[in-house]
Amino acid sequence: MFSKMKNIDTAFRHVRGFTMLIIASCVLICCFALYKSFSLVSQMQGKIYILANGKALEAYSSERRDNIPVESRDHVKTFHVLFFTLDPDDKAIQANVTKALYLADGTAKRIYDDLKENGYYSGLISGNVNQTIMVDSVTIDINEYPYRFRCYATQSITRPTSITTRSLVTEGALRNVSRSDNNPHGFLIERWNTIENRDLKTANRNH
Fold this sequence. Notes:
Elements: H1 2-45, E1 47-52, E2 55-60, H2 64-84, H3 90-101, H4 106-117, H5 120-126, E3 130-141, E4 147-158, E5 162-176, E6 187-204
Antiparallel strand pairs: 1-2, 3-4, 4-5, 5-6
């Protein structure tokens, strides 16, 4: 009888040990599954999918500071292209300048008002003058806020009889503002001024 009791006790210990092993294994598997789930969610939060032409394209989110140099340069370039691309059409000039003024503070508005008051835009229209700009480079100092920038560009002024090429260098600062449809980069140009705008060459047009 004692032998049977001993066998039952041994069997009970084996069953208990096996049960504890199963429970420990289940706990480990659950912990591993939770860990992998949280890791997967974290990875998915760093991915953005953009639908373009019926196709899902993967993009990646990043800290704003990582994108400051790229976005700020594009902001400055966009502003200059809009502000200085002028056709001999009052509505076209107004449309471009209006878009540009969303990207800058009152300093740009004052420059626009001065040019308008001095008859610059009416002179372009009456003389059938077309003005374009090519931004050569933009330097940004992101070590101090607001971020100082300098823009180097080349203007091309096309008149009925000649084409004038001018060098344009401007500077200013960028501060953060809320993003919007009119200001997708979330920057605002302030203290903007021109430090150089001189003729490089003038060439006659062939007719």
